[in-house]
Design a protein that fits this description.
Order of helices and strands of chain B: HEHHEHHEHEEEHHEEHHHHHEEH
Number of strands of chain A: 7
Number of domains of chain A: 1
Shape of chain A: globular
Radius of gyration of chain B: 22 Å
Oligomer: heterodimer
Strand order of the largest sheet of chain B: 1-2-6-3
Helix content of chain B: 25-40%
Order of helices and strands of chain A: HHHEEHEHEEEE
Structural class of chain A: alpha+beta
Strand content of chain A: 15-25%
Distance between the termini of chain B: 57 Å
Chain lengths: 180, 335
Amino acid sequence: MARRRGDPYWDFYINTPPADPANLLRDALRNAPEGNVFPTKADLHTPEVTTSHVKEMARYLGADLVGVTRLADDDTGHPFAIVCAVRADDDPRQARGIGGQIPVQNGLFVTFVLSAWIRELGFRATAAPSLDGTRLDGDWLAAAAELGTLDRTGKLLTAEFGTRVHIADVIRTDLPLAPA
Amino acid sequence: MTRHIKAVARHMGADVVTVARAHPSFLYAATAPAKDSAARDVYQNRSEDVYQNRTPEQMAQQYPFIIVATTAWDYDKLQAHRHYIGDAAYHVSQMKAQMILKALEGYIKELGYAAIRGVSNPQAAGLASGVGELGRNGLLIHRKFGARIHMPDPIMTDLPLVADEPVDNGVEDFCKICRKCAINCPTNSVPFGDKVVYNGVEKYKINWLTCYKIRPYMDTHWESCLTCATVCPFTKPNVWWRSLTVWALSTCPVPARPILVRALKAIDDRFWGVTRQTRVRWIGYDSGIKPGEQACTVAGCTADHGAQHASSTVGNVGYYAPLKENTNRFVKRDV
């Protein structure tokens, strides 16, 4: 990466975890409370058109890849999952610095605003973990939403960015969508 | 370190990042209001705590640099000014700019230096660091993005940096001649006249009271007006012919500029119109019904329904909020 060449601080920015976690915006975004669902459902077009609207909104908010899939056994009554992914030059699972966590932060921004928009349309949507606290398997759902395929280690492999991609928190919703 | 901070801000998603040399006149007044004063809000408490009885001069000496990092809002959606689509362009990029500045603030603190928010006027710092020039509409006009850039709360820091210089893009000469924002302002808040000296700053003084007074009346239709930013001839897509024009204007000798500006303004009037209103459709939202046009209230529907969907059905249906035809000249109509 050209930006990294001759920059002695770049490694610190990407890889060194912050001494004070409060300096990381990621956790503040993740803990932001979700709002209420609007009491009246909005007029919608067909699920196919609504899906294209959701995808365009997600891309506008900063998602590089977005897909929709059906949730088979969801106990909370959300039939669909919206999977957003952002480009990540450094894998946030290894790069724990503020710079390495920037894709996570951008992904949280997308999922928060997108799910808030769906709630304002009058449909349920949440990016929080399931009721029993387990997070959905983002890689598997992203592959089901046709963002890419799973490689040998179970990571998402996309045509656009290879494995250099971060899958944001999965949004579960009852907005009528057309899964891939 | 300046290169690094700029690379970091761009990695976080900033479109524009500059460094200003701090000056006492950039800082907000830190006089503590009375304990029971209504003005004693969050911001005043914050700057009062930050100042810790230091004068603005001492603050500017101790924290000599101000980092201005900001985002530009989307050109195509901005064309739907005075509509929710324009609001989306404005507020989404505003949220992103705030996110970037908060993350950058955290990073500077991790480096071991102070990062102080809420003390510096962003426009003053932006002007001094060469984000742009002040235009007639009271906005900073950037070389690439025109008036469509945010001015969120900048970071004052003692990180050792190299300050940027103010720029000359020819905005000064353009605004003397072009009065597009003044013509288009729905409340006539942008002046047609010359610059005045206000608070020690020579600038075009907009009437902020009438500018803001339109909002409570229009808040069921839109939140942010954005008209003066949209109609500004400098607000164009960032493409080669725009770069060429701004380069020609900024390299032109100052005495010859009025001729060039008049020519450019004539071109702008010819292709973009003196009063610009473009209909924007975006994910089922529609920026307005022009005379003779019909719209369906179902999101994403592009079918031609003819006369059966008369304008009586358009209004508070679904999630549409069409632009009313007579929002122009709001103040005069009210008299």
